[in-house]
Amino acid sequence: MKSFKKKLEIKKIINQIEGGVTQKDIISPSYVNTTNPNFIEIEKTYYAGLIIINYFREYQEIILKPFMDLPENINISIFYEKQDKYKVIRDLTYHIGNVGAQLKDIKKNNQEIDIAAFTYQDAKYIRKELQINNEDLYFLYIYMEIFNEDKKELENQLNKIEGICNATGLATRRATFRQEQTLLATLPLFQNNYQIKNSAKRNVLSSGLTATYPFISSTIFDENGIFYRYRFL
Length: 233
Known about the structure:
- Among the domains are: 30-80 and 140-196; 85-131.
- It has helices at residues 2-17, 23-27, 85-105, 112-131, 151-167, 179-185, 194-200, and strands at 32-33, 40-42, 45-54, 74-82, 137-148, 171-174, 202-205.
- It is α+β, with helices and mostly antiparallel strands.
- Helix 3 runs antiparallel to helix 4.
């Protein structure tokens, strides 16, 4: 009896190795083309990604508000990474000391003085918020995935969304040669790949996180449905 059960277990493992159908096989698309750097084709639908790389310094309302009622096919993914406050304060203090010493050495007519002074004041402001106002620091990442069954329409949608982003203070970059990573980031897989993180990473204080909340109503209704998933790390 024991040998029979063992044989069944071995046969099950062999079937899985040699091509047995798994849950992954059932949900996987039948055709995926990743050869084009500008989009991914999945079962006759084209997907192109946008990476948000910068924001207005001061936001008075929700960052993604202009995209909530758009008729375009668009998926948006937001990632937050909470940073170690004490390590951040230590690094900021070191940075402030170095930049402060540089400011004394830079000549007044040198163009670098404006940039150095800007980062110096930013570092001092963030450190004050962390130490005095008990704020926390996060890294923020926002990705957008636009999809359409027609390549020309997809390009029109990309141009439209890029225009809206620029008008509302969101600087974007197309995910050229990084389409697969951006697509995975906008699926409910919690994958924020290192190959795109450096482009999207921006710091934000905890008080600024409210501007990234993706809804503006306490009651949410969409006839096509809204998928909202979160995980605390």
